[in-house]
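One chain is below:
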Amino acid sequence: MNNTNLIFRRVHLYLGMLLIPWVIIFALSTFIFNHRDLFHGQFNQPDSWTQLWKKEYKADVPRQQPKLREWARGVLDGNGIKGGFNVRQNRQSVLINLIQFRNPIRVTYQKNEGQLVAEQKRTTVAELMARMHVRHGYGRGGVLYTGWAFVVDLLCFAIIAWIVTGLYLWWKLPATRKPGWVAILSGLATFILLVLTI
């Protein structure tokens, strides 16, 4: 076995072993998304939010998103809540969602009532999987949030690497070329057919 074959085999093998838990999570969560009716009882359960506290609060809320994020960070820090978050607002309220896989927290500023309300959600397994699947992006918190985003990038790279190394190793085995071509062309034809007809 020459050095190129060995390198491609090792890349193919060890990337797969390194990313086993991540591939399992994305596979299971995708199945949940694709068969959401089977898990309807796992999502948006009634009374799944529990109020942690409610406070009187009055503030001028900035309209621009960067300043709104600064304002939201100040609200969270002022109430001892740490972690990455998303924030959005409408005329009646500002909603700050903490980015947490288990038991997420939301803080709502009700503008007209002058109240700040913090609530925590009981998490089901399906919701946990869904949050892990859609979690993305840099610049949303500390080192752990960046670490998650980095591994998602690594998984994207690994999928391409598996394709490249798999094709190389397949081509090196002449006995598998005909069934390999059948598999490749069948996959391509199915993809094109669905893209063009849906």
User: Anything to note?
Assistant: Residues 143-171 form the longest helix (29 residues). Helices lie at 3-18, 20-34, 65-78, 125-134, 143-171, 177-197.
